Write a sequence for this structure.
């Protein structure tokens, strides 16, 4: 049954660590700090954890699921180290919910940490050059997204100004988030006039390079109310994949988010108009436009005018990336976890100055590879069960 | 003959065969003997129908620019260059670069023709205006 895990599990701990710059610390250190903070929120310790889900950057141990459990002294009954890029964390929640519901484990820890900024100063990717693309020296991953943007502009008349308005909205949200890495004024002109990376994308159309980590603690819905924090339930979740390399993406303007979104909504028994806040993986400004279209928040081709209208900025009709997103808050290489932590915070009412009023339903959406893997999670408060 | 004994699973793999053709100055892509789909990059199985009767054919080399980005490399490192996706007339899509024209003039919809660049270690396909 497609809705069998709706509301079956809840997030009872959510935390961030090492945001921005964490010099002298390994990716593991950052992930462990986030894990301890998330467990502390739930009143738990590592001794309570019996399932571990997570991954670290591409230059860490590929078996980081094992490594992290070992470092923390956990001997898990269930480990998931699945890699679909930055989206992967939204599949961990789905797998954790299934495992918790079926009684394979009782307390799931989901972790992420990356020291890419302090360690290398640039994106640390798990992706190796692809022999049928490498001779042309595309910048990974910016050029792949730039190619998709060029198609969207060609087909729908989307403009660089419209894409820039995504970065501007993200910055306006970041300016209300004390934890955001990039704060201060940013205009459409600033975005357009910043350094071109891979046309049509300038450096301000691209996500940040920061350190950072995040962790979640999930338990079965049966005991979700036994913890200090208000539980946030997983109401719907679905994944879809179309390709790995950009040359193999059948339609550069239609992502698998259409499929993952539809199935996640179906499981949740909801539709886009039921969503109070959207947290999506804005690796590049074009992502926000593509995902809002594909997830059903506006029509295909109308994403550019939708974002330029101010709809996604503070005060707009659809709050998107209320933490400032990967564009202005944090981007340690795989941003997916941060969509979930911000979604949880909004649903708990912990957003401070940036809190969306009466937020009951959050849609979190992860992207992996080069628009390759799309995974949607719909989270809700107890009132939405 | 069962599927697992098919010739496609013996001898050099498709990447090697492709590269050997390029070394002889020929661009070859694969065509599915079951559904007719033209496949690129080289594979063991058809992405259209899952069949394994892929045969090597010589495309016309003519194509159309499907998407374009100019990578803004610093002047001292060689300056900007273009990266394109090209739809071959036969249907398969390749990544490439369009030579012999200003980057600013490389546009979506532009007609191009493949040629083989053998200047480096391993030959690869680039395009020029048709
Ligand atoms: Zn076929």
């Amino acid at each position: 049954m497609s809705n069998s895990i709706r509301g079956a599990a809840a997030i009872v701990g959510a935390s961030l660590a090492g945001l921005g710059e964490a010099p002298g610390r390994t990716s593991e250190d950052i992930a462990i700090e986030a894990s301890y903070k998330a467990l502390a929120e739930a009143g738990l310790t590592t001794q309570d954890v019996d399932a571990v889900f997570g991954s670290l950057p591409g230059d860490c141990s590929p078996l980081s699921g094992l490594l992290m459990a070992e470092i923390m002294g956990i001997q898990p009954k269930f480990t998931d180290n699945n890699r679909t890029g930055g989206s992967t964390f939204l599949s961990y929640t789905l797998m954790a919910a299934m495992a918790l519901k079926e009684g394979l484990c009782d307390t799931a820890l989901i972790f992420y940490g990356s020291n890419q900024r302090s360690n290398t100063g640039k994106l640390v990717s798990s992706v190796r050059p692809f022999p049928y693309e490498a001779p042309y020296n595309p910048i990974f991953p910016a050029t792949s997204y730039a190619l998709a943007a060029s198609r969207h502009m060609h087909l729908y008349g989307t403009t660089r100004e419209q894409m820039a308005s995504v970065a501007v909205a993200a910055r306006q949200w970041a300016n209300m988030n004390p934890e955001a890495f990039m704060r201060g004024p940013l205009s459409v002109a600033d975005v357009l006039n910043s350094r071109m990376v891979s046309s049509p994308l300038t450096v301000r159309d691209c996500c940040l390079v920061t350190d950072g980590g995040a962790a979640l603690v999930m338990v079965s819905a049966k005991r979700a109310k036994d913890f200090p924090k208000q539980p946030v339930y997983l109401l719907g979740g679905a994944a879809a994949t179309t390709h790995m390399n950009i040359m193999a993406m059948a339609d550069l303007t239609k992502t698998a988010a259409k499929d993952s979104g539809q199935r996640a909504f179906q499981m949740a028994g909801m539709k886009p108009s039921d969503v109070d806040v959207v947290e999506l993986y804005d690796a590049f400004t074009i992502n926000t436009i593509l995902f809002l279209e594909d997830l059903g928040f506006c029509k295909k081709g109308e994403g550019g005018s939708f974002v330029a209208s101010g709809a996604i900025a503070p005060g707009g009709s659809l709050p998107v990336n209320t933490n400032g997103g990967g564009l202005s808050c944090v981007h340690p290489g795989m941003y997916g976890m941060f969509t979930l932590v911000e979604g949880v915070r909004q649903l708990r009412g912990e957003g401070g100055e940036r809190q969306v009023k009466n937020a009951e339903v959050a849609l979190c959406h992860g992207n992996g590879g080069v628009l390759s893997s799309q995974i949607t999670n719909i989270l809700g408060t107890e009132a939405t069960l | 003959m069962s599927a697992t004994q098919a010739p496609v699973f013996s001898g050099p793999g498709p990447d090697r065969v492709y590269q050997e053709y390029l070394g002889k100055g020929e661009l070859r892509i694969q065509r599915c003997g079951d559904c007719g789909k033209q496949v690129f990059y080289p594979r063991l199985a058809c992405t259209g129908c899952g069949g394994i009767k892929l045969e090597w054919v010589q495309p016309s080399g003519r194509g159309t620019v499907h998407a374009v980005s100019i990578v803004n490399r610093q002047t001292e490192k060689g300056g900007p260059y273009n990266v394109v996706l090209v739809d071959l007339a036969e249907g398969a899509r390749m990544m490439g670069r369009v030579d012999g024209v200003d980057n600013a003039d490389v546009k979506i919809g532009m007609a191009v023709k493949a040629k083989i660049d053998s200047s480096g270690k391993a030959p690869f396909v680039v395009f020029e205006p048709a």
About this structure: Chain B has a mean pLDDT of 95. Residues 119 and 125 of chain B are 11 Å apart (CA to CA).
